[in-house]
Amino acid sequence: MTTTSTPNPTSTTEQPCSLRTLHSGAIVLKFVGPTPPDAFTQILKELDAAMPVSGARLVWDLRLLVGHNPEVRRLIIDFLSKHRKRIFSIDVIVPDSNAIVRMVSATVGLAVGIKINLASRFEETLQ
Predict the structure, then answer these.
(1) pTM (2 decimals)?
(2) What DSSP string describes 60-84?
């Protein structure tokens, strides 16, 4: 399993973005707190380098994400649009109680033409 993190200048405990590759080949991105656009840009570069040429399975863990940033949403849409042919599936983990992030996740999927599977627990993405 490979792990990289983008530093958070305001926190000494948890990074705003991290990426790890599971033994299954799935690439997990985890977001904590508010994620500044510069940190998000960096993690997308790391994701691009980690993704296979085709068949990428992405898991976006948004359980600890705070807020919704339209600038970051635009970065996601641009990235997914550019790399759509490399992606097999996207699972987004977000609590049922976070309706706005669930709605935005589904809308992003519609915008780029990729079905995004919503889950509330990590275990649901392993199916």
Answers:
(1) 0.84
(2) EEEEEE-S--HHHHHHHHHHHHHHG
